[in-house]
Amino acid sequence: MSGSRGTAGPERIVDIAVGYMASKQLFAASRIGLFAALAGGPLTASELAAETGKPEKITRILGDAMSSLGLLSRVDGRYELAADAAEYLAGGGLDLAPFLTFLDSISYPHWLQFGHTADSGEPGKLEMDDARWGTFMAGVMTYNSLHAEMLAGAFDYGPHRKLLDLGGLSSAFALEAMGVNEELHTTFVFDPGFAESVTTAVAEAGLSGRAIVIGAETPTARPEGEFDLVMVNHVVHRFDAEQNAQILRNARAAAAPGVRLLLLDFFLDDDASQRPIDALHAGEYLVIDGTVVYPESEVRSWLTEAGWQVVDKLALPGSPRVLVAEAV
Predict the structure, then answer these.
(1) Residue 107, exposed/middle/buried by CB under 10 A (0-12, 13-18, 19+)?
(2) Which backbone phi and psi does 151 adopt, to 5 degrees?
């Protein structure tokens, strides 16, 4: 009938389409110190302008945008931090600012090449210098620290004594585990290019007496000894199927029956509703450097073939998922 339309509305499509506007304003608010300025209590746009040194029209726009997204509240013209903004953007806990800087200055511009990637299946050109690599690594390691914090809240490290951290790039996962379990000792078997930074991080955490750091190429590393917990974090997306199958076999060889494996990464699933963060990172990894977010079913097949049985799956807030497996 002329002039009629169905019951479906356009809101969801429009919200997704303009999502980059929210992202860019979040990045700007973090960069100018808007959230940090509110750490001491509610402020007006004028007061925020004085605190940040930016024009009032900017602090009003950013304040309103962040309140519309729930990161701030706005009462009688005064902006106040929401609990998550206070924790992760204003110094209350882990500061995600380096991660936001990475997204703003490295990831977002690189996504401008996604049209080519969608047409060709090939990654964009990642042109980097030392400064950009510094921004890249600071952001990625900050995001890894968030994952480690979320995992420590979701998995009980208490019963374990000997941890193998195999092939990861960040020491944060094991350091979090050692922080909550003073009897846990860790053997890090990392890519040789990361061994020095892991050694430094362990020393700075005061945990050198409970850690061994070994440099070895991840696809061929064969850790020695028997461990009662194994981590394989952010590994599988970096390697091909054959390499991943071998990595998981090598991990199984270092574990006695009944030992638990934590395999953390983003996965494409077969659930009725795909978790967005995993699917979005499939595009991110592809456009950045051509690495792969694998279907969970394929990862499970590698685990089964290697002698691991999946017993649980943990969906970490704002982070990847973890397949928890047991050596059989």
Answers:
(1) middle
(2) -65, -40
Distance from C-alpha of 209 to C-alpha of 299, rounded to nearest angstrom: 34
User: What is the chain's percent helix, strand, coil content, to nearest 5?
Assistant: 50, 20, 30
CA–CA distance, 243 with 221 (Å, rounded to integer): 11
**At a CB cut-off of 8 Å and minimum separation 6, what does 123 contact?**
117, 286, 287, 288, 289, 290
pLDDT 10s digits, 210-238: 999 999 999 999 999 889 999 999 999 99
Tokens at 13, concatenated: 């499509």
Q: Are 240 and 293 spatial neighbours (Cβ–Cβ below 8 Å)?
A: no
Phi, psi at 217, each rounded to 5°: -65, 125
- With a cut of 70, which residues of the chain have pLDDT below it? 1-5
Asked whether the whole model's pTM tops 0.90, one would answer yes
